[in-house]
Task: inverse folding
């Protein structure tokens, strides 16, 4: 439908894409030589230096919390506090994001707690337009 | 290959100098270093000038325009927080290679207040895809250490108590104020566990060193206060598992430390004092282990036992460190070398590390999506 296409929010970052049906996914690359999965598109492996082994993959949408911080001071116009986490995704890749849907308090954060990706459209600080972004939420599973 | 010696070295008092120019700040340190050696600018065969903020504006040439246009080769260097140390190392290499006998290295920075990090074009992802600020990056590195070894908020905070205490004995420090543990822990939280008093201070500053070959230092009668460069090593970030999510400063530090100990033929137990890159309190804790000052997992108990305080096993950041002395990015690397040299010369006054014969300096910088530059120097009383 052209109407929804016209209002489809652009992605905020290159490694966040939409598939042919408009469904968001995180673009990754997997090295066939050393099996490391990278966030984003790339051609050469930074880990094993292989030049012909990289293939595009869609990244896992679930994983575990590896490390965290609660950000109380950010750049002007950015609402705080928020929970900044490093997640280890189930496919072995690692990605930073904001953990949503829990109050920004240390008691709510446990190492290795299950998290999953949640795609949302937001208006970034300093912008007037909506962008497609990704967040983490606690995963009940 | 000749041994290389620091024959003159000094720094300006770190502070805020909004009315001065970058070349002007550089010139002041250069003249102080020349005076320290009793030398003049026309005796310098080359200039290595480190600065980040005006990296494309030929700070070295503009500095010479203020203190003497002798026509010598000038190399302007930019390498994140390792900028000053990189300029020093380039100077060292030029003598080591036999190209020059005596050269000048300068590091300088003029900074605004506030948070560093982020940047780049396009719509900002700050507060959407996480935070790219420096305090957040180093908060995550601290929390990772807590995850592995149970390091506590209080142990991280003790780094700031110590370094702020050290700075009360350093007239060239930006701040010279005691900060008790409760004050550090109750200060404004920036990114947990780093409170405001656990973040380095953005200041203006400059530092400079005159380096000479052994033959030249002897010929000019400068060996009495000379400091021998036992090792000068650098690294960039090797592949690290989580590098795309959290920049890695540890692997690069470990690489450069290994190289430095090997090329000096010494180990961590031979080091009497260390000036390391305490850009945040969490960083100092992980670097104790990265530099081999204590075993992996022991950094928390190491600070608890006071081993890195003045009078401890290996005093760290006796100058007050980046946390209190301040962190003018391009100047920091040479200022660290000034601090260690001052102790090796026995001229550090109240904060003198007694009987110091060998010291180590470490800087490491970089950022999200950029990479890491690390430089380590081992210095010895000549
Ligand atoms: Zn590979």
Result:
């Amino acid at each position: 439908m052209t109407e929804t296409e016209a209002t489809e929010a652009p992605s905020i970052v290159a490694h966040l894409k939409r598939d042919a049906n408009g469904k968001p996914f995180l673009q990754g690359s997997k090295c066939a030589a050393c099996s490391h999965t990278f966030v984003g598109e790339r051609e050469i492996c930074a880990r094993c230096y292989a030049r012909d082994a990289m293939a595009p993959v869609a990244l896992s949408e679930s994983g575990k919390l590896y490390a965290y911080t609660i950000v109380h001071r950010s750049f002007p116009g950015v609402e705080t506090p928020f929970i900044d986490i490093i997640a280890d995704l189930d496919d072995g890749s690692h990605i930073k994001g904001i953990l949503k849907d829990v109050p920004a308090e240390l008691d709510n954060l446990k190492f290795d707690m299950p998290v999953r990706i949640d795609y949302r459209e937001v208006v970034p600080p300093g912008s007037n337009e909506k962008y497609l972004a990704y967040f983490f939420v606690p995963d009940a599973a | 290959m000749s041994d290389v010696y620091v024959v003159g070295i000094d720094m300006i008092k770190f502070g805020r100098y909004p009315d001065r120019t970058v070349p002007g700040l550089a010139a002041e340190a250069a003249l102080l270093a020349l005076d320290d050696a009793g030398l003049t600018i026309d005796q310098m065969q080359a200039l290595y000038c480190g600065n980040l903020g005006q990296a494309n504006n030929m700070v070295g040439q503009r500095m010479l325009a203020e203190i003497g246009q002798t026509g010598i080769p000038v190399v302007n260097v930019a390498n994140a927080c390792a900028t000053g140390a990189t300029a020093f190392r380039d100077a060292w290499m030029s003598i080591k290679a036999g190209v020059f006998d005596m050269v000048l290295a300068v590091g300088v920075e003029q900074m605004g207040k506030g948070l560093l990090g982020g940047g780049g074009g396009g719509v900002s992802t700050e507060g959407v895809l996480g935070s790219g600020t420096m305090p957040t990056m180093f908060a995550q590195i601290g929390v990772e250490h807590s995850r592995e070894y149970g390091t506590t908020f209080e142990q991280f905070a003790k780094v700031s108590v110590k370094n702020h205490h050290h700075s009360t004995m350093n007239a060239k420090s930006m701040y010279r104020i005691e900060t008790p543990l409760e004050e550090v822990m109750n200060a404004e939280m920036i990114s947990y566990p780093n409170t405001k008093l656990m973040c380095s201070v953005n200041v203006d500053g400059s530092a400079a060193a005159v380096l000479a070959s052994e033959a030249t230092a002897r010929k000019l009668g400068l060996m009495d206060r000379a400091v021998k460069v036992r090792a000068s090593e650098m690294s960039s970030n090797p592949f690290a598992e989580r590098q795309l999510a959290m920049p890695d400063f540890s692997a690069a530090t470990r690489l450069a430390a290994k190289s430095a100990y090997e090329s000096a033929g010494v180990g961590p137990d031979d080091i009497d004092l260390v000036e390391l890159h305490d850009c945040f309190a969490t960083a100092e804790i992980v670097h104790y282990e990265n530099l081999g000052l204590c075993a992996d997992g022991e950094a928390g108990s190491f600070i608890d036992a006071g081993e890195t305080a003045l009078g401890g096993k290996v005093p760290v950041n006796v100058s007050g460190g980046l946390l209190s002395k301040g962190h003018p990015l391009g100047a920091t690397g040479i200022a660290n070398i000034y601090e260690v040299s001052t102790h090796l010369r026995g001229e550090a006054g109240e904060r003198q590390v007694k009987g110091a014969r060998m010291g180590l300096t470490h800087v490491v910088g970089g950022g999200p999506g950029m990479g890491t530059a690390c430089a380590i120097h081992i210095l010895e009383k000549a």
Remarks:
- Residues 134-200+232-381 of chain B form a domain with the Peroxisomal Thiolase; Chain A, domain 1 fold (CATH 3.40.47.10).
- Chain B has two domains: 4-112+202-228, 134-200+232-381.
- The longest strand of chain B covers residues 371-381.
